[in-house]
């Protein structure tokens, strides 16, 4: 049993190493044009080794994309945890922008064209929108943000995030996803900080 357990741990470690390489490759160059053989060549491993990640190209891509968003979410939450209450929301949105900064245009294009991977992006966009709503509610309760309807702000931000994710914001503004998230952070914080002009509807 100990030998089997060590083998399992070694296999898991190798799989994580492969996912790390796939994340870097895909973010820089996209994934649609790569065959499994191409991926194996770029990662300097055999195809059978690459199949430790998943049993087909499509599943390998989805696993790598899901891994990217999972790791990004962990880093975002870690950065936000260190922020003071009045900065948590803006740190969250800026951290999202920072995680999207290294993403290439080809990766975005391939995401949009491959439904299973795009669904992962959509799922994470919805999670991020819910997180923003939670952070607004926390900020209002702590008195560091103006008293607003957190559900409304969350819903509004979710629509913008969806527009960023599906490309309509870029089409309208020319901003890439990272730039759009930074502008969203500016917009949200300018309207919610207590230094902002009080709305007659607040």
Question: How would you describe the overall organization of this protein?
Answer:
This protein is elongated. The protein has helices spanning 2-29, 36-43, 47-50, 57-81, 88-100, 105-113, 115-142, 150-166, 168-173, 177-192. By secondary structure, the chain is mainly alpha-helical. It has ten helices and no strands. Helix 1 (2-29) packs across helix 4.
Q: Can you tell me the residue ranges where pLDDT is under 50 for at least 5 consecutive residues?
A: 196-202
Q: Rounded to an integer, what's the Rg over CA atoms?
A: 20 Å
CATH class: Mainly Alpha
**What's the tally of helices?**
10
**How would you sum up the major sheet?**
none
Which second-level CATH architecture applies?
Orthogonal Bundle
Globally, the shape reads elongated
The secondary-structure element order is HHHHHHHHHH
| Domain module tally | 1
The percent range for helix content is over 70%
Q: Tell me the number of strands.
A: 0
The fraction of residues assigned to DSSP E strands is under 5%
CATH topology: Tetracycline Repressor, domain 2
Overall pLDDT score: 87
Structural class: mainly alpha
Pfam families: TetR_N
GO molecular function, one term: DNA-binding transcription factor activity
Organism: Thermobifida fusca TM51
Domain HTH tetR-type: 12-72
What are the salient characteristics of this protein?
single chain, about 200 residues, 10 helices, mainly alpha, about 0% strand, Tetracycline Repressor, domain 2, disordered C terminus, elongated
